[in-house]
Amino acid sequence: MKPEDGGQTATVKLKSDSVVIDNRWIVPYSPLLLKMFDAHINAECCNSIKSIKYILKYVHKGSDQGVFAAHSSNNCIDEISEYQAGRYISSNEAAWRIFGFPNHERYPTVIHLDMHLENGQRIYFSEDNLQCRLANPPNTTLTGFFELCKNDNFAKTLLYCNVPKFYTWDKSKKVFNRRKQGAIVEGHDDIRSGDALGRVYTVQSRNTDCYYLRLLLHKIKGPTSFKDLRTVNGIEYETYREACLALGLLENDNQWNEALKEAVYSDSPSKIRTLFALILSFCEPSSPKALWENNKDCMSEDILNKLRADNRHFVLNYTDSIYNEALIKIEDKVLQMIGKSLSEVGMLSPSRQHAHNMSREILREMSYDSDLLLNFVTQREPLLNTDQQAIYRKVLRLYRKSEGGVIFIDAPGGTGKTFLINVLLAKIRGERNIALAVATSGIAATLMIGGRTAHSMLQIPIDLPHNEMPVCNIKKGSAKAYVLQEAKVLFWDEISMMHKHGLEAVNRTLQDLRGNKDLMGGLIVVLAGDFQQTLPVIPRGTMADEIKACLKSSYLWKQISAEGWMSDYVATQSGPTEAVQWLQTDRKALHAHIIEATILTGPFEGEHVLIPRIPLIPTDLPFSFQRLQFPLRLAFAITINKAQGQSLRVTGLDLTDECFSHGQLYVGMSRAKDTSTLFIIADEQKETKNIVYSQVLK
Predict the structure, then answer these.
(1) pLDDT per residue over 141-193, tens digit each?
(2) What's the whole-model pTM score?
(3) In Å, how far are 116, 141, 228, 249, 254 from 208, measured between CA atoms?
(4) CB atoms < 10 A from the CB of 639, how many?
(5) Any idea which GO molecular function terms this record carries (predicted)?
(6) Left, alpha or beta for 233 (phi > 0: left; psi -120 to 50: alpha)?
(7) What stretch(es) of the chain map to CATH 3.40.50.300?
(8) CATH of domain 365-564
């Protein structure tokens, strides 16, 4: 790490000169290996897929060579002779070969499994036995697998690639036999498992039929024939591709069509429109317009029914105006989810004769009930303590003068930061001005009135650690840009969890959108957080990495005014958003393409929701892949990092595995409002680690 980033330095004297040495001069090493082998050893951590290339490069590069010769330019080059003449064998290698030690080995055994279409086995024939060979093609490991599944119940539980672990292939008889050696499989005393791995030969995607057959073999257990592989839910399909589509193994809009059809049987048109908006926002259908045409009636049914109820003497059917109204409702939901219009996601744009496109984002921020908000302020203002009142007055003073500036509220968890922010939000919005509320974590966002995550509202890039100069994905002239231009104050909770590049990206974006080179483009920004709590998460990062990513390491930190309090204050009459809120769901029905669920707690408690599969792409791996799956995770508990921002009536803390990062123990224990409601489980130990980075707290 560079000295300017906190790395250590040392001064070494060389004759009359002095040289400053930092970490860039030091080769990675292990003191234990140096002492053990008494030699210089370069220690490197091989922790990615690139390690395979690194290792194989040394295995296959060949022996050391040294050769020197003078010859005429007319002589031809004999590379074989040059290799033999120049090959150098050291004494160690010579002794190794003389004693006959192995040069290489392979473990575990890899069994190659045949891959072919029906009656597509490779046969060898002559003119005399052609007809006989065609009539009786030889068995392969694939056809042998089918025969095995017909006669062996245990084999019916296996995929094709897993068979070699439990069975051996008899090349002479062309059949699979159970292994006679190995560990006994639990629950099957007559089955033994070995270490062999099965590998099905690769098939190019251009060989379509065989490619889809191979895909089915990796998904269907215990097939007894090629026909059995093409049969899904009792329906035999003509091609393997159709079978793959029926199983949902291939990308196409059939997945979303089926999801919408399943929703029709149990849900209202309003819920179906929300589901459709979700699909448009996150699932990237290949033909959104066709998807709309196939399902537009079920998404417009409530609009037609309302018209029929108001005009009982007329026979009314679906019209373009009804569909247009449904599209407007869908577009409003898409705007709320990702801030894009229908035309930006490949759909038809609805006609809005009485509303300007630019006003929709503004409308969401201006639709609060002023009387209700001002009444909220009247009730909550007297509950603010002295420290909170000082910050309250300072923010309002900046707001009245429109001077701009950034304030950081630094206070421990559970002392009323969110309560103060909600009072300020109500005050500013009650005066018909725009105040934006965002938080780094989703939980914290739900605790603020009208709160959203910072990544969603401000379009902050995801891969912040690897982006030195990020900017937010907000276009000039867009509705979201207009909101940020008109906003008076931006409140940002749990800022201590955000990577410093996130705040720097917002600063650049606001300066560009607002045409102002002042800090945050002249917008008043109120940050709230606690550096005693968890810091930005850096995958496989060190303490130095986390400190470097912290907001205090940003060049913006010196321009931020820090305010704080230490009083252990929690409002006794907290508002509705200050209540304990968990994002939990209880499933009502599990369909093939959607999950019907009910939100158990939080501001949307009792609301019925439809959850489709969503393409998810991990960003923390050295290679890229996409997986289509339900965005759900079983959670009988939540991680300490996820709990940050909550105040819980009863808290159970599992410390059987100790905390491993700054602030985790503090966050876990401070979720409880009272020590009598805090319960800790540990492995009969009286002590646990409390990791604190003192550099962050200075």
Answers:
(1) 999 999 999 999 999 999 999 999 999 999 999 999 999 999 999 999 999 99
(2) 0.60
(3) 12, 21, 19, 14, 20
(4) 12
(5) 5'-3' DNA helicase activity; ATP binding; ATP hydrolysis activity
(6) left
(7) 365-564
(8) 3.40.50.300
